[in-house]
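input
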Amino acid sequence: MDRSEFEAALTADTPPQGWSRPLQALWHAARGDWTAAHELAQAGDDQAHAWVHAHLHRIEGDMSNARYWYGRAKQPAADGTFDDERAAMVAKL
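output
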């Protein structure tokens, strides 16, 4: 999926059917619902969930916790904008 497809989905009331929990979490995060995004990120124990979890703690400003989750995701800690990181994640997830 590319950034424009993801952003188009943000106008809906709910994430599209069939999206993985990590993508749904990113959808909620993009709409400003950190709590719903965090609940979805915590719902799995794989690298995709960990990567989203890291992104969310970065948004929260808790870099220590974010670094832990980036490590679990086997991803380098991001240092660009949240939107650019989210776009990169959407493209891979």
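quick obs: The domain at 3-8+20-92 is CATH 1.25.40 (Serine Threonine Protein Phosphatase 5, Tetratricopeptide repeat).
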